[in-house]
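Q: Convert this sequence to structure tokens.
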Amino acid sequence: MSTLTDRYVFAALRSLPEGARADIERELRGSIADDVEARVEAGQPPAEAENAVLTELGDPARLAAQYSGRPLYLIGPDLFLDWWRLLKTLAVILTPLAFLGSAVVQMALEPGDAAGAFGAAIGTAISVLVHLGFWVTLVFAVIQFNGTRRKDLGLQPWSPAMLPQVPRKSQVSLGDTIASVALAAFFIGVLLWQRVGSVMYLDGEPVVVLQESLWSFWLPYVIVLLVIEAGFAVVLYLAGRWTYAFAGVNAVLALAFMVPVLWLLSTGQVFEWAFLANVDWGADASTWISGITAAAVLFIGLWDIGDGFLKARKSGRSGHVPAAVR
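A:
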């Protein structure tokens, strides 16, 4: 486990330029070690001495701003870091959800224009970011203008207990999260497209691929699962790494999709085979189409489950990486 000093140094260095981190880390660790040693020699227990020294140093983000010469005055020194943290948290949570919701609604309203739906979803996400930046900043500016301070808002003063853990090598990237949310939105849009029109044309005629009876329960069930999957991807990104608990949730979601779909395929309740009358794919076309689909569902589901537990295992084994090294 990393010490409080390791966590403090990581938190202080992560916003500084790479080239300046090594020198500042040596200076900061030396200063902390000297102060802790002085307190220990005066009779204070080492753990208490370390905690006291870090408390006196204050919020590492504020210390980093002093090292880099960046004054925190956009909102005001007292509330700047609270404003910045809240803005980042809301952006990470609300922007992907806005993209997903807009994509689903647009593809339901305009099923024939998938590209337009995704373009509108991107525009909605950008609009959400702009509104978040404006309204959150406005609220904090009004609070600052009225002379309200952090203690007046009931916000806790910074303490070493608030330090983040040094991240492990196994990280959940923002790109993977965005891809997961976008993929969920795409499949939801495809299903809704099937509902209001069709996803295939043969000889100029629209063809219904999925059985209408699936809309009585199973397709809404799949859409809900896809929404949960998108939410799970966001939660996983906020957590920062895979754990066995997350792998278990991922396995449950995969099985919740895989098992019903395989059962529906085996009982012939998925495809509307009438469209085969217009094509010459052979007498056993329905058999091999169902077989290929079932194999793909089984492979993807098992791979997803195994990949989740493998990432959790790697995350548990990997050690902490010092910020200066990374």
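Residues 319-326 have pLDDT under 50 and may be disordered.
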